[in-house]
Design goal:
Oligomer: homodimer
Radius of gyration of chain A: 17 Å
Largest sheet of chain A: 7 strands, mixed
Number of strands of chain A: 14
Helix content of chain A: 25-40%
Strand order of the largest sheet of chain A: 3-4-5-6-7-8-9
Number of helices of chain A: 9
Shape of chain A: globular
């Protein structure tokens, strides 16, 4: 199947998930705590159900791995990887920085990725070989010049709580103290900023496969670098952004 | 002059500044460094010029204090306090969380405040005695219950760099380590979240008079508490949000 066709399908899915999420924001939704105490809403469930139903109808042989429901067709050549609402805590509190993550891998290789921010009206996406886009505009990251003083760049990290989840809070504290322009962005919003060069790079720790799969296509297609620093069980510790900023950070983590 | 009338004028100004900022985002703008090395754009200047021109025409006797130009009528009974773009760095980088701050004081007392986020399409405002609003909906903050474990709440702080400006980086480090759900928000976006209860409270350090004047009306009108912890020269260190969360934080700063 052609990446262009699969990308179009993924974008169509994101149109649908955005509609559902906006409707939930207008009409309200119920929140409950999951077994790990993180919140889930009936909107998370409704969006993932919608995505699964559409995908199963269009691509009955494909696999689906999503945050909220059991895996489907685990051995399949094509695997869709879904997070209906990344940043549910933000979603429940009226903080508009959450997003929907839709990714497709073929034989484990990143093929298509979409990050959609329904409340911001922002979206970025990419497909292997077809480039990366933010709100319809092609994004080509300009790397830092050789020898650039990376510590003077605006760099980003996820919340300290994410570092804590994988016992790496000292990494946050060290970054915080040594990078005068470090900013903190929760969830996939930091990836959107890194893919478009708004920040030089982001250090994002303690995230799951559905939080990285879209960016694993989008960041390299934008001319950036996506690196997994380590994997601890189901959690990935990552660095993503402009190649020289990522290299510089990797040496310091 | 009636608060309702003055609020309407402030909201009309925010409509105008939003148009100018959106146009600058569409068409592009020039950035240069100010003497303190922070960035300023021709959009910052154009917006403040617009606000000053409108105010001088409508209220020739009023004072105006703005970030980018000299003070006007410093002794006047009514003082408008303006920050055309709070978060210029975000604005220049495509990070949609910056905002325009418009406030009015009468004899030093907060009377009207508006925080407008042009790229988010969000706005909050208040006038003394008339309540606080976010996007047209009345906001009435629900305080934490007595005895609530405030350290379990989602609380916010500004960037560590802001604490550094006033030599208080250790306050950030302490908050970071002791509050498992601390989030970091730059500029006035954190105030918007605190006014609507999206976070329990925000600790915002190293900010200027034009960064606090709008919130000094909005937060109390929403049922919250706005406190100045200390003033160091032109910089204010503040805590704002739900009353019990603010009290709890004040004891620990």
């Amino acid at each position: 199947m052609k990446p262009r066709f699969l990308l179009r399908e993924a974008l169509r899915l994101a149109d649908g998930s955005r509609r559902l999420i906006r409707r939930a924001l207008d009409r309200g939704f119920k929140v409950r705590a999951k077994s790990d105490k993180s919140p889930v809403t009936d909107a998370d469930l409704a969006v993932e159900r919608f995505l699964r139903r559409e995908l199963s109808r269009r691509f009955p042989d494909h696999g689906i791995l999503g945050e909220e429901f059991p895996e489907r067709n685990p051995g399949a050549e094509y695997q869709w990887i879904l997070d209906p609402i990344d940043g549910t805590l933000s979603f429940t509190r009226g903080i508009p920085l959450f997003g929907t993550l839709i990714a497709l891998q073929r034989r484990g290789q990143p093929l298509v990725g979409v990050i959609d921010h329904p409340a911001l009206g922002e979206r970025c996406w990419a497909a292997a070989g077809l480039g990366a886009f933010r709100n319809g505009r092609r994004v080509i990251l300009k790397d830092l010049p050789p020898g650039a003083r990376v510590e003077r760049e605006v760099l980003a990290a996820c919340d300290r709580a994410q570092f804590s989840r994988v016992g790496r809070e000292k990494v946050f504290d060290r970054l915080s103290r040594s990078l005068p322009h470090l900013r903190v962005y929760s969830d996939c919003f930091g990836h959107t900023l890194a893919m478009s060069g708004a920040v030089g790079a982001m250090v994002d720790y303690g995230i799951k496969i559905w939080d990285i799969a879209a960016s694993q296509v989008i960041i390299p297609e934008a001319g950036g670098r996506f690196e997994i620093v380590e994997r601890l069980g189901e959690a990935y510790n990552t660095v993503l952004g402009k190649p020289r900023a990522v290299s510089w950070l990797l040496k310091r983590l």
